[in-house]
Write a structure and sequence with these properties.
Length: about 375
Amino acid sequence: MSRALERCYNIARLRERASRRLPAPMFHYIDGAAGDEWTMRQNTDAFDRYELVPRFLVDVSEIDLTTTVFGREISMPFFCAPTAMGRLFHHHGETGVARAANRAGTMYSLSSISTASIEEVAEATDGPKLFQIYVFKDRGLNREFIQRCKESGYDALALTVDVPIAGNRERDLVTGMTIPPQLTLSSLFNFAMHPRWVWNYFTHPPLELSNVKDRVKGDVTTLVSFFNDELDRTVSWDDAAWMIEEWGGPFAIKGILSAEDAIRAAEVGASAVMVSNHGGRQLDSSPAPVEVLPEIVDAVGDRMEVILEGGVRRGVHVLKALALGATACSAGRPYLFGLGAGGEAGVDRALEILRTDIERDIRILGCRNIGEVDSARIRRVSD
């Protein structure tokens, strides 16, 4: 790991380094969200509405951060959420993130809209793996993805339900973000200021949506259009139940923000819910996941895993989520900032930062394992 990455002492520093190393359209694609981006800011700011209550004179010489999600033990209560188009940010892409997650002893989640295939990621890591899926108009595509995941040894599926249509991501309009990136006169100067990214982009295989490249012939623009056209806006809970039965293993509904939907997820047979607003990238003004977490845990926490996804940047955020009843946390931006800052080594650094943070703070909190981080260790700050 380079000295520059070692000097990134927190996720915010990795974000700063990524902003310098990536062309503006790529960086802001990671960093931006929908509308006025209020929800994205609230995802992290809402953690400040809670405070942790430490207990002292506890022997914390030995601690255990391990927990179990989707039937697999992971080394800490944090894993990598699915994110799209990994090779836009570094040529190591999804396989680099998967290898880093494996070294960290945690789970990697692969997006359907990825630049590495289900099989390529399985070859890159034998660690815990989750595949994120949508309901497509062509149910044959769903069956194909599920079968490929079974054959490749994936541990779980997560059905994303909060994208009937893409959110209003205005930053991408401002920066001229396109897939594939276009070197236009307006963007030429910005790309020229990032020669390393440009060199790697043009000296490595072209971007492609690897999971559907054999179904649709054409460049990445054609593949993106295919994915957008295939998203089924008539999707219902019956479709989720069908997919859960077809998979037959650990299954999460991703994008839950209400107790009512969490209860429905349990009723159709899901083993987990991922409390998420898509990183603020869909409906601006939707609630921060940590704000709705307690009511969802109260509703279903005794019969399914509850994963908090959104706004995690510090170890204390993970501990607050655990104290409010979450099984574990996941996030995408922290490791994407690492990927943009330094490729696979940058992802190593992002996961190291979070693990070190959690390890230090759980000791200061006076807890020796994840199970001891309970409701007695947290309280809401008075308004």
